[in-house]
């Protein structure tokens, strides 16, 4: 992360105090299943018990926007899609990919997160030159399950182990498929496939990582 961006993001972080987090379910009703494969098994925090979760560890959320799948076509020649992420006044966007409904971005966006249960909004737009950009769908997600796993000591678990699986459920859920949280090369990584709302088709593939601030 560039030093200037790190300094800006640090300025967004207030002094943390222990408090009871809110209980919205921005990605809809979901089932969380602990799946720890390998020789070592950990006592994981109870799924969905956010009251037992301590304050967020010092750091930032890195969201890798990987690709879009079967997005809506806004023009005869296709769409020029880009993604916008919004949280607590922060708004970050990817580059525009020209004339495709299956864009590959593979770009990292970094957010300062104060509350793991707060919904992070994702929107997809079609870039227009002479008119307002067209909406291509939206979705929401949170990082409660990811943060619970980050707080565990996983050092003796084999790399590549699926530590927790979040399953979609309910009509308001934005998950298109199971979301696996994996211990991979000394990092906790979560893959998300989000189905876009307010459109007939479209999925966005994300990868989440928590970036710890040294010291």
What can be said about this structure in brief?
This protein is mainly β and 215 residues long. It contains 2 helices and 11 strands.
Can you characterise this structure?
With 215 residues, this protein is mainly β. It has a single domain (24-210), classed as Sandwich (Immunoglobulin-like). It is 8% helix and 39% strand. The chain is built from 2 helices and 11 strands, in the order αβββββββαββββ. It has helices spanning 3-12, 144-150, and strands at 30-34, 59-69, 81-87, 90-93, 104-111, 120-126, 134-141, 161-168, 179-184, 187-195, 203-212. Strands 1-8-9-10-11-2-5 form a 7-stranded antiparallel beta sheet, covered by helices on one side. Strand 3 (81-87) and strand 4 (90-93) form a beta hairpin. The longest helix is centred in the N-terminal third of the chain and has 10 residues, at 3-12. It is elongated, with a radius of gyration of 18 Å. The relative contact order is 0.24. The model is unreliable at 12-31, 35-43 and 47-54 (pLDDT under 50).
Rough outline: elongated
Cα(first) to Cα(last) distance is 16 Å
The whole-angstrom Rg is 18 Å
What is the N-to-C order of secondary-structure elements (H for helix, E for strand)?
HEEEEEEEHEEEE
* Beta-strand segment tally: 11
**Unreliable runs:** 12-31, 35-43, 47-54
- Neighbour order of strands in the largest sheet: 1-8-9-10-11-2-5
Based on the coordinates given, report the CATH architecture: Sandwich
Question: Would you give the CATH topology?
Answer: Immunoglobulin-like
The CATH homologous superfamily is termed C2 domain
Number of domains: 1
Strand portion, in percent? 35-45%
Q: Give the overall pLDDT as a whole number.
A: 81
- Under CATH at level 1, the class stands as Mainly Beta
């Amino acid at each position: 992360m560039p030093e200037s961006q790190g300094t800006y993001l640090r300025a967004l972080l207030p002094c943390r105090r222990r408090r009871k987090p809110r209980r919205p379910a921005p990605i809809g009703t979901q089932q969380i299943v602990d799946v720890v494969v390998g020789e070592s098994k950990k006592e994981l925090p109870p799924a969905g018990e956010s009251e037992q979760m301590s304050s967020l560890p010092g750091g930032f959320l890195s969201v890798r926007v990987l690709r879009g799948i079967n997005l809506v076509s806004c023009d005869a020649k296709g769409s020029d899609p880009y993604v916008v992420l919004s949280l607590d006044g922060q708004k970050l966007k990817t580059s525009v990919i020209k004339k495709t409904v299956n864009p590959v971005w593979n770009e990292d966006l970094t957010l300062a997160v104060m509350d793991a249960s707060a919904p992070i909004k994702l929107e997809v737009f079609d870039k227009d030159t002479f008119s307002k950009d067209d909406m291509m769908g939206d979705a929401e997600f949170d990082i409660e399950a990811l943060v619970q796993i980050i707080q565990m000591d996983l050092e003796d678990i084999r790399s590549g182990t699926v530590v927790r699986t979040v399953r979609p459920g309910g009509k308001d859920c934005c998950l298109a498929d199971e979301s696996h949280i994996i211990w991979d090369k000394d990092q906790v990584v979560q893959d998300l496939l989000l189905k876009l709302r307010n459109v007939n088709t479209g999925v966005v593939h994300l990868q989440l990582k928590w970036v710890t601030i040294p010291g």
